[in-house]
Design goal:
Layout lengths: L3 H11 L4 H8 L3 H8 L9 H14 L4 H11 L18 H30 L55 E6 L4 E7 L6 E7 L4 E5 L5 E5 L5 E5 L2 E2 L8 E6 L2 E4 L2
Helix pairs in contact: 4-5
Length: 263
């Protein structure tokens, strides 16, 4: 068990960030950041928003967002009771049943009268179907049989030989990246950049202002970095942005083959 709010505030001050800096980076209003740090959950817009803000804020500060969500669920989350199941709605009243019985009797009488009338019409004389093709007593001439044509022999089809299928062309190999540039295109971005992995040498740690760039070399080793506001960042190679940036703060690996998630 640990204190959620004080640990967030301590991590923010350790990085030299104000709440205004955090608001610009992850777009969560300062009053909500204050409510998270002071654990005033009633000032937040709802439990779903609280958990989303908590995860984003923790991961922006380089903390384990899942750990903070689990702590919040165990101590503060509301557990809903089983919903009350109301009694069936729209029962037919006894008065409605009393009205339906006479209507059912009338419908049965009308159906019986219609059945009798139909039977009388079918059994009346003169309605029997006459045989088709002439009057009774006259012989019906049979059509003369047509001479059957001798079937002509069809030429047998020559067997077709299977054509060899062409082998698919090999896909061109992906270009190897030598250099790349991290650019804060749409706003400020908090970055921690290391060589190789999360324990490698720190190349940069801090806020990359909007419009600023950070060039990195990929010839000797991959680049591990943690991004706080990936929606503001572009990773460029040869002037073109690379695909693979996440939608939420997380760790990434930039190698000669492109971007991929990292531990």
């Amino acid at each position: 068990m640990f204190e959620i709010g004080p640990s967030l505030q301590e991590a923010r001050t350790r990085r030299g960030l104000s709440q205004a800096d955090v608001q610009k980076a992850i777009r969560i209003r300062e009053r909500y950041l204050t409510a998270l740090e002071e654990e005033k959950w009633g000032l937040l817009p709802g439990e779903a928003y609280t958990k989303g803000f908590l995860r984003t804020y923790a991961e922006f500060l380089g903390l384990n967002g899942n750990l903070y969500i689990d702590e919040y669920n165990s101590r503060y989350a509301h557990h809903e009771e089983e919903p009350f199941v109301p009694e069936p709605v729209g029962r037919v009243s006894t008065q409605s049943v009393g009205l339906l019985r006479p209507l059912a009797a009338i419908a049965a009488i009308v159906a019986a009268v219609a059945a009798v009338a139909a039977w009388q019409l079918r059994s009346s004389p003169g309605t029997a179907n006459k045989p088709a093709g002439g009057t009774a007593g006259t012989a019906v001439s049979k059509p003369a049989a047509k001479p059957t044509a001798k079937p002509t022999a069809k030429p047998t089809a020559k067997p077709t030989t299977a054509k060899p299928t062409a082998k698919p062309a090999a896909k061109p190999a992906a270009p190897v990246l030598r250099r790349a540039v991290l650019r804060a295109t749409r706003g400020r971005v908090w970055l921690q950049v290391r060589v190789g992995n999360a324990n490698g040498k720190v190349l940069f740690e801090g806020i990359l202002e909007q419009g600023k760039t950070l060039p990195v070399s990929l010839t000797s080793s991959a680049i591990w970095f943690r991004v706080g506001a990936p929606w503001n960042l572009d990773v460029l190679a040869g002037g073109h942005p690379l695909p693979g940036l996440p939608a939420q703060p997380r760790n990434m690996l930039l190698s000669q083959h492109g971007l991929s998630p990292a531990a």
